[in-house]
Structure formats: C-alpha cells, structure tokens
Design a protein that fits this description.
GO terms for molecular function: lyase activity. Belongs to the PrpD family. Pfam families: MmgE_PrpD_C (PF19305), MmgE_PrpD_N (PF03972). This is MmgE/PrpD family protein. By secondary structure, the chain is mainly α. It folds into 2 domains: about 260 residues, Orthogonal Bundle (2-methylcitrate dehydratase PrpD), CATH 1.10.4100; about 120 residues, 2-methylcitrate dehydratase PrpD (60s Ribosomal Protein L30, Chain: A), CATH 3.30.1330. About 50% of the residues lie in helices and about 5% in strands. The strands form 2 sheets. A 4-stranded mixed beta sheet has the order 4-3-5-6. α8 packs parallel to α10. The longest helix is centred in the N-terminal third of the chain and has 21 residues.
C-alpha cells in the first residue's frame, strides 16, 4: 500500500520544532546561512543578477536585496538574491544539488517580512533540507544524466516546505504548499555554463515563497501531487522506479546530520573539485613543473561527472565552471582556482586554451549509483621525457562534509566574498550575527534596532 507521501511529509514538516533538531543539525544549518550569504554578496553584481533585477523592476517591499538598503517584496527578493547566490557556482552542495542557494534566500526574505527569529529561520532551513532529502532518496537513478537540475526541480518543493514552516502553516496548508511548489519545478542541465543555471535556483526560491503564501491564503492543490502515478516523482524519474511507499522519517531521522554540507573551495562545478585538489597536490609537490612542457594530463573520474562537465573548449568564465579541461589548465598554470581566474580574459589566455587539447579523461567504471561519483578521482601529468607524475587518489574534496573546512577557513571565505560588497567591519559584524543566528530575535539588513 502506497504511503500518503504528500500529506505525511506535510504533517512531519508542520510538526518540526527547533527544540527537536540535534545540535549538529543546527550547526550545519548555520554553516549554510554563512556560506550562502557570503557568496550572494560576491555574486550580486554578476550580469545575470543585474538583468533579472532590471527586468523584474520589483516594487518596494520589506525584504532586503543583497543585504543592503534596497528593499523588495519577499518573493522577488528571494528570486533575485538566490540568483546572486548561485551566480558564481561557489555555493555549497549536498543532495546532488545546491540546497542553501535556494533555501537561504527564500527563508531570509520571508523572515524579514514576518519578522521571524533566528531560531525560526534555522528550523525552516532544516525543514526544507529534510523534505528535499526525503524526496531525493526515493529515486535510484541520476537526475543529472536524465537532464534534470535537482536544484531547480527539488528546490521549489523544499523552499515551499521551509516557508510553510516559517509561516507555521498547519499540515493541510503545508500539503498544499508542497504541491504548489511541485507544479513550479524546473531546470535542465543543458543550461549549465550559462546565465540560465543560477536562474534555476532563483525560480525555486521564488516558487517556494509564493507556494507558501498561496497556501496560507487558502489556495488548494492535490494532496497526492508528489506520489501520484502522474505526480512529481514519477514525472521526473530517470529510472521510472520511485519508492513512494517508504514511510516519511522527517523529524525522526536527521539527514542533515547524516549528509551534511559540502562547502566549496573553488567557484566551479563540484565535479571538478577532487581533480583540482589532485592537480594542486602535484603542483605543490613539483613547484618547477612547467605547464608549457606538459605532454598530457589524464583525469580519472566517473562517466556521469564527465557528462556534467560539458564544456571541453570554454571561452567564458561561465562555460569554464563546467570544464574539466579548464580546471586542470587553471590549477596547473595559476596554482589556484579562484574568482579571479573565472574571468573571460583569463579563460581566453593562449596558454590556458593551449592546454585543453592535452587533457583527456579515463572513466572509472566503479560509479556509485547513489552519488554518480567514482570511489576516488586521480590526476596524472605526462612529461616529454616519458615520466608520469601521479597524484594521490582523492576520495573527498577539501571542504566536503567528510573533510570539512575549519571555522576559520569558512570565515576567511565569507570575508573574502563579502569584501566585494561590504566594508570589512560590516562584513565581520554580519559574520558574527550569522554565527550566533539562534540567539537573534530578528535578522535585519542593515542591522535593526532591538
């Protein structure tokens, strides 16, 4: 007998309280807020953000744009801020997606409107994450391989769950919000490496805010929209084998603690991070390695990850984010992969372009069906004299949930990103407030008075 998935997930979401969440889950959620808001500040002036803001020309409201004095209504603020958060592809990853890029802008915008507390926001984040994780684990196929971008298709439902919890909707209204979020799901991987990709996160955040607001106002939706044979999970399923019968365990099993967040060290697709770590290890071990004298670069990785990295000959910073060829050329040549390198001029440098043809892939057949990753990635550099330099096998990228960055490293990333938008003192103050989010009665921008 099939579980009443939509209704059960709604009941679990509406019943979630801050006090029930493990301390480890709260700390992970705070990390999501810190990282997302930092990269949002770094990405606020990207062309895709400016185009969206100018096109929407949002009416004034009570939700902040880019943590500054300009305000918009919460749905539009969530939309624009989420595009900024994902614009640089520097935001965290989990669940084969970018949960914080969707959840944080949606929650912050609606929390400002509702004047919600920091604890309310953290509870909403965990509610959204747990709903996302519950739905994702019901499928054995790879959404990316099918062409779906999980950030877009699951993000709208998860953001609806988060905003429903923030609004303290009952189980019936929360079910409507989840179903309304499902009807707004969208995002295809063919748009990776273009301005459309961050739009997926923006639309999902906007959809979540809107879904919860419509449900709160009395709009109805099907109460089996997630599990119905023509419902969301069946419609997007890559394998056509969705487990809708497994009981909902939100509030009992804490997947945010089990899975955690991967904090990015590099502003590129996460599929490049293990190979980048491997190349930087070789660069450090062989500081005199001359890129011009490299005969070949061999990258061992999964076929699925290689498929995601679709741009073999990028000519823009956006395209380069989804290019293993660029990742290897950049790490080898610059000894780093940062925001300054993800620039059109750097990507088009002849020495960078000249290395692309020397990169070739070897596919590891031991692909994990749940993650799409091989057990490890490895990089080899072939020299003209016949020698080959091999990196260590890299099973976890630096910053992964299993190899986390220190609090100081996370702060350093935040301050570096925030420096693009805020004075140092303001950035430090914001980091301090986010680090103690559970103690804040209100989270306002600019800081509000008690």
């Amino acid at each position: 007998m099939k579980a009443a998935l939509t209704r059960d997930l709604a009941a679990a979401t509406s019943g979630l309280t801050y006090e029930r969440i493990p301390r480890a889950g709260i700390e992970i959620a705070k990390r999501g807020f810190i990282d997302a808001i930092g990269v949002m500040l770094a990405g606020k002036d990207e062309p895709c953000v400016s185009i969206l803001a100018q096109t929407l020309s949002p009416a004034a409201g009570d939700a902040s744009l880019f943590w500054g004095p300009d305000k918009a209504r919460a749905p539009e603020a969530a939309w624009i801020n989420a595009v900024a958060t994902h614009a640089l592809d520097f935001d965290d990853t989990a669940l084969s997606a970018h949960p914080s890029a969707v959840l944080v802008p949606a929650i912050v915008a609606e929390a400002e409107h509702l004047r919600a507390s920091g604890r309310d926001m953290l509870c909403a984040y965990v509610a959204g994450f747990e709903a996302w994780a519950d739905l994702m684990q019901r499928e054995t196929g790879q959404y990316h391989t099918k062409g779906w971008h999980p950030t877009g298709i699951f993000g709208s439902i998860a953001a609806a769950a988060a905003c429903a919890r923030l609004r303290r909707l009952d189980a019936g209204a929360t079910a409507a919000a989840l179903s309304l979020g499902a009807s707004q799901s969208a995002g295809i991987t063919a748009n990776f490496g273009s301005m459309a990709k961050p739009l997926h996160a923006g639309r999902a955040a906007h959809a979540g805010v809107l879904a919860a607001r419509l449900a709160a106002a009395g709009m109805t939706a099907s109460t089996d929209a997630l599990e119905h044979p023509q419902g969301f999970l069946a419609a997007v399923s890559p394998a056509g084998a969705v487990n809708v019968g497994e009981p909902v365990t939100v509030g009992q099993r804490w997947r945010i603690v089990e899975i955690g967040l991967n904090i990015k060290k590099y502003p590129t697709c996460y599929c490049t991070h293990r190979p980048i770590d491997a190349m930087l290890e070789l660069k450090q071990a062989h500081p005199s390695l001359d890129p011009a004298q490299v005969a070949g670069i061999v990258v061992s990785m999964s076929r699925r990850n290689a498929k995601v990295l679709r741009n073999a000959h990028p000519t823009t910073g956006l395209e380069a984010k989804f290019s293993i060829e660029f990742a290897m050329a950049c790490a080898l040549t610059a000894g780093r992969v940062g925001l300054d390198e993800l620039d059109d001029r750097f990507v088009r440098r002849p020495d960078i372009q000249g290395l692309f043809e020397r990169v070739r892939l070897v596919f590891d057949p031991r692909e994990d069906p749940a993650t799409g990753y091989a057990p490890h990635d490895q990089v080899s550099v072939e020299l003209p004299d016949g020698r080959t330099l091999r990196s260590s096998p890299v099973a976890l990228a630096r910053g992964a949930a299993g190899a986390p960055l220190s609090h100081e490293e996370i702060r350093t990333k935040f301050m570096s990103c925030a420096a693009r938008a805020l004075p140092e003192a303001a950035a430090a103050s914001l980091h301090e407030r986010l680090s103690n989010l559970e103690d804040l009665r209100l989270l306002c921008s600019p800081p509000c008075s008690p």
